[in-house]
Amino acid sequence: MNRRLIIAGLVARPVRTAVSIMAVALEVILILTIVGLANGITYDTGRRTEGVGADIMFQAPNSSLLLALNNSSLPVALANKIGEVEGIKAVAPVQIQVNSSSGLEVIYGIEPKTFDQITRGFIWHRGGMFSAADEIVVDDLYARSKGLSIGDPLEILNHRFKVTGVVEHGKGARLYISLKAAQAMTGTANRASLFYIKLNNPDQLNEVVDRMEKAFPGYRILPMKEYTTLMMSNYMSGLDAFIQIVVFIAIFIGVLVIFLSMYTTITERTREIGIFRSLGASKSFIVRLIFEETAAVCLVGVVIGVAGSFLIARGVSAMFPTLLVMITPPWVAKASIFALLSGLIGSLYPALRAASQDPVEAIAYE
Amino acid sequence: MKDVLKTIDLRKTYKRGKVDVEALRGVNLRIREGEIVVVKGPSGCGKSTLLHILGAMARLTSGKALICGQDIGNMSDHQLAQLRGRNIGFVFQKFNLLPTLTARDNIEVARHIHGVVGDGNDHNLADIAELLRIQDKIDRKPAELSGGEQQRVAIARAVLNRPSILLADEPTGNLDSRNSEIVLNMFRELNRKLRQTIVLVTHNPDLTAYGDRLIEMRDGVIVNDNHF
Asked: Which among A83, A101, B11, B208 would be 20 to 30 A from A312, CA to CA?
């Protein structure tokens, strides 16, 4: 009977029900897509950085794990000193820049020779390596998303480049220019953002790291496995704070919408509540009925929201191949729980208000 | 026969802004099991207030009110609700059916609230629907029923749990004379078949013929109490 009462209540007010369901669905979509996008970007960045094939990352003191946020403060000449440490096979200086004019694109300024020593070389789809400062190599996903072919012009950071090659994705960045070109663009001659380091024997990682820490105190010397674990596990405090804010805003919107929806419903249904009370319904029966109705709205909203989020993620992947929206089962569960909780919190006051109405006044309500 | 409703110096005062309004000013009353009592009086005389207190819907200000021997003066809200669900059925002037439910669901709501699970096809509901001659209207919504039919559905809802007391507040107030007669005859039939105590509140003098007893009220007190 409760199910019939709830369905009848929801069907009787179709617009209000539809708006409430859509609000809950939007709350879920907001959480899943934004969190999925943030996690996807960091995961993808971590995966691509891991794909470089280095054993150690060398950064200036107090550098960020978000590589694109670091300035170019390392002298390239330091690479020679690092190379002298026992057990190191190759050192590749990289200058990292970010182009945000059409999405968030990471550009690596590289020396092809040293970068190849680390990565064992690019897998070429078309064309070849840049040979001039105004030439650029892009990965296949970027080329597909922008419809680029060899010889096409590409405007990046107010500089016009010519595409000379398309490589398999997964080696750090999506765009590669010469280190000297990157330095010239930022006025940081002979500087790099970081060094990728390859070891003669990866099994001696800890020993080499110990030697490097003694030789270069204060610098961040991070094994790549450690870095990728940090990037892919969402241990980043800045990202966590961002996600918490997004989730809080989504829950807050959900609470407000459900509150408004249930509050107006309770006012509309004052007489109905009076009827229930006259038939012997206790306050807890009224509260339970309203909670169950809210839960029904939230459940439908959650289903639509989760399905919508996956559709949006697929749409984003199709339209922007370089973007990854990572919707994980734990976040689906979290978003669903948050939506249900916000619904229950939002309906708490209206439910208590309905239950505390005077039965005589409620039944006489016009 | 035992008293099912009893009041001793029952008083009820409402606050209207800063003014106290005395709706009941010392009502002493005993209603025995199986009686049909008509409470008559002009508008504002306190008869509806009396009905609400006798139905455990409103709280009294002072005095005593006993329903089936239980003093409701110190009962919690939950206890009052339980008492209502178990012992009392209400019939209102405006029928007060839930417009989104069928007649059957409107009737079964009472049992659901009372915590009894029905299969929607049981004998009690069928008997009552037959008694009230609504068996062929049971799957219609209130908007598809006439006023008389709606009131009969409301009566079915009120008596489904077999309460010992049926309280009706102007039950024919929204009905034409033919439907009024049908409904009032049904009250008599219910009283005879289900042995329920029935209290009818009205300002309509025509209803007095349907009761065993007529109580007249004026200005919050009983001025006449006649047994027929």
From this structure: A101
**pLDDT tens across A238-267, in order?**
677 888 888 899 888 888 988 888 888 888
Distance of CA B54 to the CA centre of its chain: 9
CA B27 vs CA B1, B23, B60, B68: distances in Å: 21, 10, 11, 18
Place of tokens 């010469």: A178
Residue B49's closest chain A neighbor by CA?
A360
The answer for residues whose C-beta is within 8 angstroms of residue A160's C-beta and 6 or more apart is A134, A153, A154
Residue B21 CB contacts under 8 Å (≥ 6 apart), including other chains: B13, B14, B15
Min Cα–Cα distance to chain A from B222, Å = 22
In tens, the pLDDT along A198-235 reads 999 999 999 999 999 999 998 999 999 888 777 766 55
d(CA A259, CA A341): 12
CA angle in degrees (0–180, nearest 5) for B132-B137-B140? 135
Instruction: Please list every residue in chain A whose beta carbon sits closer than 8 Å to the beta carbon of residue B201.
Output: none
- Is A48 within 8 Å of A172 (Cβ atoms)? yes
> What predicted TM-score, i.e. pTM, was given to this entire model?
0.76
Task: Note the Cα B204 to chain centre separation in Å.
Answer: 16
- In sequence order, the 6+-apart residues with CB closer than 8 A to the CB of A191 are A72, A73, A74, A75, A76, A95, A183
Residue A279: list chain B partners with CB under 8 A: 84-85, 90, 109-110, 113-114, 157
Q: Annotate A274-288 with DSSP letters as a single string.
A: HHHHHTT--HHHHHH
**Percentage helix, strand, coil for chain A under 3-state DSSP, each rounded to 5:** 60, 15, 25
